[in-house]
Design brief:
The structure is a homodimer.
Chain A (H helix, E strand, L loop, with lengths): L1 H8 L14 H9 L1 E6 L4 E3 L7 E7 L2 E6 L5 E7 L4 E2 L10 E4 L3 E7 H10 L3 H25 L2 H18 L12 E3 L4 H8 L3 H13 L3 E4 L3 E4 L2 H9 L4
Antiparallel strand pairs in A: 1-8, 2-7, 3-6, 3-8, 4-5, 4-7, 9-11, 10-11
Helix pairs in contact in A: 1-2, 5-8, 6-7
The structure holds a DNA duplex.
DNA sequence: CGTTGACTTGAACGATATCAAACAGGGTGG
DNA sequence: CCACCCTGTTTGATATCGTTCAAGTCAACG
């Protein structure tokens, strides 16, 4: 038990994850049912429409939630980073597919045991609820992007969103706050699936921003934002 | 008090709204803080980014939630029908704009009083939570539509969605289950804002379905679905 | 009737998709 | 160490779908 406590005390995402709201002894109870899981990229966590057997906090790495049409067209409907919660309490199965994008470190909880704790621990469900409201806000933000933004605006918004998330979980490669530098967790194909575009269009927009000196690339995954002002302007208002 | 109970007992949406989960005496407490509000179309319920002062159940009518870009481009990010809940418990303000689309009958609750009840009534927050998970599912379903479906598929999906909602709240005009007939609550402009298209494209797609004998129109708002099979096929797979 | 606003229809244009080829980096086997 | 793929990415040419701009229709209403 003391050991469990210790584990959570040293957890990198402890204060930002849903468990952050818990009291010390409650954390211990949660910790007692926690199991750690390390997954390589491309691992399926949840099949579309399948039953879920566990919940999880993401300790590190990135997970994508996707939906697919009959003919194979795919859309990423959610991107989860360190400290995000995976799973739908009190729901039997998932309406989407969840898959690791990078190496992922999960802190998992058996479904039944977790739901029992949620009922027993005062305020825990409240925290999960508020977390879901945040997810809903992000989803709706993304609906605006998907329905109304141009390709250039979409890519700019995406880069900024990733930059912010990477920053907040301390994964930035650089230390100049004005010129963030980070590794893109997604491939071009995945970015396209997230933005409702094709690979080629994503690539062209990124190339254009490179030519325009808004960003710089090292290899294909490491991005530096050179001109934050213009990137933010490009997010809502495509220049001609 | 008895009067309040009575009011809820005869409520059209009582069993499907979030209050449907409550015990008899709990309904009475909720009823005690309820106020009814009748609004004409085009009335703003919530300003983007403004503070919310009340929650509400929709008793009848349709409400749209929208987000707008700096230059005026708009996206409907949620469409709420009778029995849907409006508001974000324990959040100070709203990240989107809510506006009536038709005549709307609301059953409203003061924010503070409602939140107190949520804390006091066992299982009430749970119900609100599950309701929010449903909203999240719808939002993600719509992300797939916005990002990956063609104009024709979008319009077909929209008609089917409205048909289903109208049916479930008993607003269908016809009684043949194979050939639903109903009034569109949205104008062409609103449909366009919901689907991420222009008015003209929406109009053309509807005209095409009319020529193809998949639907029939009376005036501009009343729709009959003539061929449910083909409408459902058109939803996911655009014919050439 | 004439006006207004919502909708439809048509023609031209443009953004993004599609198709196709070239390119780059990283691993493998020789 | 190099030749060879393999996969992901970039770039180019063309096609297509949906937008834009512009009329035209229609019903409601003064």
């Amino acid at each position: 038990m003391a050991e469990h406590l210790l584990r959570c005390d040293s957890c990198a995402v402890r204060h930002r994850a849903v468990c952050g709201a818990l009291e010390r002894d409650e954390v211990a109870r949660l910790s007692a049912i926690a199991h750690h899981k390390l997954l390589p990229p491309g691992q399926v966590i949840l099949h579309d429409n399948a039953e879920m057997h566990y919940f999880a906090n993401i300790v590190s790495g990135v997970v994508k939630l996707t939906k697919t049409l009959a003919d194979g067209r795919q859309q990423i409907v959610g991107l989860q980073f360190a400290s995000d919660f995976l799973g739908r309490p009190f729901r039997a199965n998932s309406p989407y597919h969840a898959e690791t994008v990078t190496d992922v470190h999960l802190c998992t909880y058996d479904k039944g045991q977790f739901e029992r704790l949620v009922k027993e621990i005062e305020g825990f469900e409240h925290r999960l609820f508020q977390n879901t409201l945040d997810e809903l806000d992000s989803a709706r933000e993304w609906m605006l992007l998907l329905g109304r933004k141009s390709a250039g605006e979409k890519v700019a918004s995406f880069l900024l969103m990733v930059a912010r998330r990477m920053e907040s979980i301390g994964c930035k490669v650089s230390d100049d706050p004005e010129r963030p530098r980070f590794n893109l967790p997604l491939s071009r194909a995945e970015i396209a699936d997230f933005l409702g575009l094709t690979i080629e269009t994503v690539s062209r927009q990124i190339s254009r921003m490179k030519v325009d000196k808004i960003i710089a690339l090292e290899g294909t995954r490491t991005i530096s934002i050179l001109d934050m002002q213009r990137l933010m302007a490009a997010m809502e208002q495509e220049r001609d």
